[in-house]
Design brief:
single chain, alpha+beta, 3-stranded mixed beta sheet, 5 helices, 3 strands
């Protein structure tokens, strides 16, 4: 994305942030013909279930099946949340 002036950023903040978030674009903010800031996409997000999705492949088959069955039996598999999620 072409550099944007501080005034453009103020007037089109939502549109520009959408470009950063959803299209992964980087934005350079310019004031008085000098770059003063750069807006870059944050790290991608994933749920705890997505983060642990490949864990089953590293466990022996019996252990993975037992862990998954225990989680479903206790109902805790649906309660797994990301402890690092700031929301």
């Amino acid at each position: 994305m072409a550099p944007v002036t501080a005034t453009e950023l103020a007037r089109n903040l939502k549109k520009i942030l959408d470009e950063v978030e959803f299209r992964g674009r980087e934005v350079t903010v310019v004031r008085n013909h000098a770059a003063i800031a750069q807006i870059i996409p944050g790290p991608g997000r994933m749920t705890a279930l997505q983060a642990f999705a490949d864990l089953y492949r590293t466990l022996p088959d019996a252990a993975a099946a037992g862990w998954q069955a225990y989680g479903r039996m206790t109902g805790k598999i649906d309660e797994i949340t990301d402890p690092w999620d700031d929301r």
